[in-house]
Design goal:
By secondary structure, this protein is of the alpha+beta class. The protein is 27% helix and 40% strand. It contains 5 helices and 11 strands. The strands form 3 sheets. Strands 3-2-1-6-11 form a 5-stranded mixed beta sheet. Helix 1 crosses helix 3. The two termini are 26 Å apart.
Length: 212
Amino acid sequence: MRDNALNYFVGLDIGTSAVRCIVGQADDLDSGKLSIIGHGFSLNTGMRRGVPVHLDDVAVSIQDAVTEAERISGVRISEVTVNCNGSHVSGVDSKGVIAISSANREISEDDKGRVEEAASIIQLPANRAIIQVFAKNYRLDGQDNIKDPVGMSGVRLEVDTHIVTASIPNLRNLEATLDKAQVIPIHRTVSALAAAEAVLSRQQKEVGTVVL
């Protein structure tokens, strides 16, 4: 979660054995660096293999971890980025393509968002929902392996993505526990991917590095 005025970010990790909450404050939005100003921890006995089975117990654990993080940071927490775990989380590859219609044919952030949105239009089973869409590589007029096309010029932009999906019933159970704990999830992520994002450099991610 980001508070636009104070640049606070709140992450909530609802694990099988424990719930952890962390509060970061942006030192410099351009650099993306954060200072950790608060954290909370609570044992969790209401989960099985990443899925809530006792909603009230999980809600209490969330409240305890959030309350501790609020006390240490001095920040009132109402919105969080929350993780999704369990065997119900899976991924699928997809492609998207758009035409660049601007007069100067220069790729903008809007174009980048449009092509990623095009890639996310896929047929899913009725009980699945998209959590995140990750762009792996872009192609511009046949040129491959472009990591960020913004500022380049061309007429046909393509993207290879990896789309992470999860079971809708399990997501609803997770949302029910957050509702009981009076916390609003504004973003979702997957723990393994969040760990990789936190500890790997861009070069490590591009060459392929395993996080254990």
